[in-house]
Amino acid sequence: MSQPAPRHSVTQLPQHNHRLQLSSPPVLSDPLAERLHRKQRLAAGYRLFAELGFEVGLAGHFTARDPIEPDHYWINPLGVPFSQIRSRDLLRVNGEGEVVEGDGLLNTSALELHYELQRARPDVVGIAHLHGFHGRVWSSLGQLFQPITAESSAFVGEQVLFDRHALRNADGTLLQDRDAVAQAFVETFAEHNLLVWQNHGLWTTGQTVESAAWRFILADDTARAHLLAYAAGQPRIPQQAESVSTPAQRELFGWLNFLPLWDRVVQQQPDLLD
Amino acid sequence: MSQPAPRHSVTQLPQHNHRLQLSSPPVLSDPLAERLHRKQRLAAGYRLFAELGFEVGLAGHFTARDPIEPDHYWINPLGVPFSQIRSRDLLRVNGEGEVVEGDGLLNTSALELHYELQRARPDVVGIAHLHGFHGRVWSSLGQLFQPITAESSAFVGEQVLFDRHALRNADGTLLQDRDAVAQAFVETFAEHNLLVWQNHGLWTTGQTVESAAWRFILADDTARAHLLAYAAGQPRIPQQAESVSTPAQRELFGWLNFLPLWDRVVQQQPDLLD
Amino acid sequence: MSQPAPRHSVTQLPQHNHRLQLSSPPVLSDPLAERLHRKQRLAAGYRLFAELGFEVGLAGHFTARDPIEPDHYWINPLGVPFSQIRSRDLLRVNGEGEVVEGDGLLNTSALELHYELQRARPDVVGIAHLHGFHGRVWSSLGQLFQPITAESSAFVGEQVLFDRHALRNADGTLLQDRDAVAQAFVETFAEHNLLVWQNHGLWTTGQTVESAAWRFILADDTARAHLLAYAAGQPRIPQQAESVSTPAQRELFGWLNFLPLWDRVVQQQPDLLD
Amino acid sequence: MSQPAPRHSVTQLPQHNHRLQLSSPPVLSDPLAERLHRKQRLAAGYRLFAELGFEVGLAGHFTARDPIEPDHYWINPLGVPFSQIRSRDLLRVNGEGEVVEGDGLLNTSALELHYELQRARPDVVGIAHLHGFHGRVWSSLGQLFQPITAESSAFVGEQVLFDRHALRNADGTLLQDRDAVAQAFVETFAEHNLLVWQNHGLWTTGQTVESAAWRFILADDTARAHLLAYAAGQPRIPQQAESVSTPAQRELFGWLNFLPLWDRVVQQQPDLLD
User: Fold this and answer.
1) Which of A80, B50, B157, C235 has the fewest CB atoms within 10 Å, i.e. the most exposed one?
2) What is the C-alpha to C-alpha distance for residues B245 and C92, in angstroms, rounded to an integer?
3) Structural domains of chain C, with CATH
């Protein structure tokens, strides 16, 4: 049923003397191949999010910029269970919020957030906002992550808090204008890769679909770590990270960490490639 | 083994330009088809509750008003594992607590609660009371939900606390008269869709089987969110919801959110339709 | 492979007008059939404990008094994974700690505790001590359960705390004599059905294998409920139970609540009957 | 596909009168058989760690000293999902960090830690460092385990805390020299079997692959126990262990407790033996 698809298993990466030889994720020269690559990683991401319990009814969206029409993005069809999403089920949406490719219902709740964020950040390909349990709960405390573990440290300097309830009209009522909210969201996000939307949940970005997905998985895990650590006591906060890295290194690292998950889920659920 | 059953997958909903065109859940004109519709959603609900760990021995009941005899309701046979319940296993019960259709043992622990609540609330079709872990634990704290997340906000204005231990006879002993307890229960419930029975657990209602089931699943998740948030710190409480909705919109929203779960469980366990 | 075995599914219980007609668990007149009945429930119990994560390496034992030689009991062979235990794998042990039927290694860590407890309690058939996570953790707090939920209420008046570290020799050192520890254990247990061994875990008893197993499952769940409730806040403690019951009713209730679990696990893993 | 492999199921251990007759884990006289034995237990350990959720992207390494070249060790290929690792996938690494047997990418993040620890501890065969959730979170609190349960007691006297952030250069900046960090790590570890790397996670050692794996599983479970106990209240700390044991007994005990896990995982996933 499924065609052999391009894979980027860790075992196929360029290496020398058993050491990885790669400074950034490989780019496919054929735009159509790159499109398929992104769509399949998007579908794999939804499958993984389903396993992790990140699906809450109709909520959640994970998008990928199209490599051919860079102001278009791919998104899941509303209401199709994450565990059943295949590459061909995805919808391509343009800047007017119109579906230009694919069948299915469109989730209109956050169209302008994805669009405006991709427009403001030419480096960004993947944007993830799922309703993972621990990210939602942590967001209610209105705090950023502390470097309490090696995993948490990855977010230091990459994260920002967004208090949507602080957006008010002149008369003090809550701002409801969607374009203005989107504008504030994008300005707050700025160049970060994790946004904690207070009393709502997490958003992550990545220069690849893979790194955006990995950051989201790691951010929900980090939220859980904070919830348990602070319930049990007072974590110690190191003043300095064990190791420092550049933005490019962090992108590569996020991309690499997604690969074992990709390899496993594709082996177990090859229909996602369809 | 199982006959093709009417389905209401999200993919089959009326839509225009990839947008949902629906202001309320569709109603089946054939009463027998509507009866089957409700019974199958009830069976699917039990399967989902089993997955979510909401089954505790013999405890729990989830009922649907019959569309033909509106003072009758359908309920699970006592002691049949939730994970094995099929549509045809359900019992139809009348106002005298007699089984008028179906085979199996009747759970008599809450007959009058379901009956009286349906009598007092002609709009209600589904009533759910399962012993989900987090709902039980949260109920012991004797508090309502706060809008700490988007999901929690759905219960603001829709919930009420019931302190059954405050029901006393004139001599101060605990009220044991079942009819009087049922009356107090119904009066407390009033027009809400979530009742927190202190030191016991959660009850939800809906104008459809689907919305009652979804509210129960979301309420147990919300209980878990509160338990973890308050263990870790002090959540921030927004003074105003991000978005406001009418009761009819909330009903439609609850109904819609159940659909991905329905689609998945019917695909994985089609015998529930039998 | 497996022979048809006597089953006591809820659907086969005596009933009238869809109401259960039973005041105590049925007793099989044929002692050999009763022996097989107990062994199969024991094996099913181990399978369920495996599912629930109650297996920790070699730890844990769940025993059933033999109906023919009432000072003998049946126990699991040490080191066989709980998820693989079949009826025929069980060992029969006499009062001298000798295996008189069955093959396999004997867990000698608690022989005298099971034996002395069964000797002191002629009513007891099943005794369960597994290293379930939440029971272990709760035991470290050195407290009994409070009636914070309906499930917790089942243990009020049925539970006792055992502080093994308070057993001291005249010189203040910890008592190591195994017979003396067993004697103190039995005296503390007295007529209760739940013993909280401080800094160790839970023990439950029952007049049937089924009720002992159900009490253990419910006790570990209750421990989890207490841990989460007290982490999140201060639970409210009702002064009076919603309903009162006799010891015979509680035995029947425990036995009944095990049946849905039995029905499911036998259907899914029929090799346990072998 | 898989060849029959040497097994050490509990059911095959030397016994007399249903009692285990063994004072230390059996050693295979054929070095090649011992090498295969270790590699297969290593692969089984990765499979179990995957089940337990200890895999976090590319993180984690579990090594076994080679019995033929005792300054070489076996390690997993970087990025292969733990759930898919087979015996033949493992890499053999020498003291220069070169792969001398096997194909795949090498995880260079901790080469010198494994090597120097094995060099300093001739008794050690297995070394485990996985990113299990609860061990990571507990490490952020900067504390050792207390004997709050029987399981926790196993670590008393066997554990040490390592504060890597306290390693500073003369100018106060964080020490980055890898050899110096490795030296401090080995000196801190000393003769213990559990090291809590503050703000990072857990390390365990064993004289067998099995005992190192069991200690790691038990240590992560113990971390979870501490997190929940301290969130809920104040655990009571016994002044004296229920039973005392020698290091040799603890090694045997750890080895034995791994066997039920081994038996189960080999039955369910025999391809790990390949």
Assistant:
1) B157
2) 65
3) 30-233+244-268 (3.40.225.10)
